[in-house]
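Lab notes, practical 5.
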Amino acid sequence: LYCACVEQWAMNKRNFSLLFVTLVAIDYKKHFSPYVVHALQVETKSNFVKPIFKLEVESDVEGPFINRRDALKSAQVSAASILASTLVWNSSTKSAEAQSSGLAEKLSKRDASELKNSVFNIPPSAQKYPQFMRGTWDVSIKFNGYVFPSKTISKADITSNVSIPGFQKCSIAQIADVGRERTNYKMIIEAKTGLEDRSHNIRESVDAHLGGAYKAVENVSYDLSNPNRITIDFVRYQTRNAERIELFCNARESELITQQRSDASQREVFVCSEYIRQVTLGLSTEFGVARQAGGNYAHFWTWREPIPESDMKMTGNLLTAVYLDPQDALFFKEPAKPVAVYSHDIVASKTTG
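Output from the prediction step:
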């Protein structure tokens, strides 16, 4: 593996070479975990760093290796399959809210084009969760595939756009590694208030999605007086793609409905959504200038009340709809509808509360 990324800096900087090379070694050792760094050779000449950094590596995982976008390509399924695990809609749904043209009906259509981006207006209040969701849960979330629903932008144009959220680690904070097969973490919903412990849950989810073998998140700043902004600070050099993430919530929706089951019993289903603007700050190839990347996406959650047949486990799914940034060259081809939708299945076991 050869790195020549500091060539332009090396011509002007005399004394930083040893420090920079150390950081490169740490970075690759942390974030390409299958590899073991054996040697790092730096050739110098006339007090300047010669731009040849050699890392000899070996892997205990047999190839061939593929990048993140290629991995997502291999998991593509049909839109009908992706949306099949969302809310089941039928005439026996009894809730008055369910009869309105709200979030539940939108999800029941199983049409990705219905998951349009929200226009920012009044700042939304914090999400409150129903009684059956309150407590501490062991959550297992499994990647179920994805779909590119756009009819105006080709798949080739989408997959070549590295700025689309989900194509790089940490570009969607709460599912920091979208294509990870299965991730386990703890989720807390406060028993008295029904509010999510966002600082805890985001920290748990990000650390778990990034492997869980080391602490990636240094701090999560969240103030309930402003529930629409979250700051995630990462441990330095623990992830290549982010030093800090700023999350801004533009809109929220939620509905609690009651479904009639085939055995004449009923259970509650809670659906909620959150429209996010994410700004990711990290290291760049230009000395002294931070990399800044913006992304827009929405999470659509479906949570089903535990029933005896499921061993009292709460099941659900997460759809993440990704939208183009207004600065993207293709934005006016698809200004509101998603260009990608990722699907995850969820199983949660209650531990306390």
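Observations recorded by the TA: Residues 14 and 48 are 6 Å apart (CA to CA). The first strand starts at residue 2 and ends at 3.
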